[in-house]
Backbone:
């Protein structure tokens, strides 16, 4: 099993920045894709950003140019740098990783952006 521990969420004013971290532990072999998802109240969970094992990245249109995903494989950690935050970015943010075809989720971290 792989456990994921997220950190870095909180309350920030519009235009501010936050950096989320997600550290994987447990039975780690080689982690493949690492993602960040988010879910706002009343909405479905949506993919925010993805990074492959080779470092290729993809972003939701709503966060392009503002968010940056990165990974440190030596630390089994994925990051999400969030700049120019907007009230509509308010959500619970979840990290997700794939290893040997199995997907694992973190418990989520709340991000609240005030106007």
Residues:
């Amino acid at each position: 099993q792989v456990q994921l521990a997220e950190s870095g969420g909180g309350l920030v004013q519009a235009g501010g920045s936050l950096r989320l971290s997600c550290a994987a532990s447990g039975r780690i072999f080689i982690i493949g894709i690492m993602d960040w998802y988010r879910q706002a109240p009343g909405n479905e969970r949506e993919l925010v950003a993805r990074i492959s094992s080779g470092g290729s990245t993809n972003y939701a249109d709503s966060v392009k140019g503002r968010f940056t995903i990165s990974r440190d494989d030596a630390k089994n950690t994925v990051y999400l740098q969030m700049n120019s935050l907007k009230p509509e970015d308010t959500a619970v943010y979840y990290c997700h990783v794939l290893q040997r075809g199995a997907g694992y989720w973190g418990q989520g971290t709340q991000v609240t952006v005030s106007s």
The chain has a mean pLDDT of 97. The chain has no helices and eleven strands. Residues 32 and 101 are 9 Å apart (CA to CA). The radius of gyration is 13 Å.
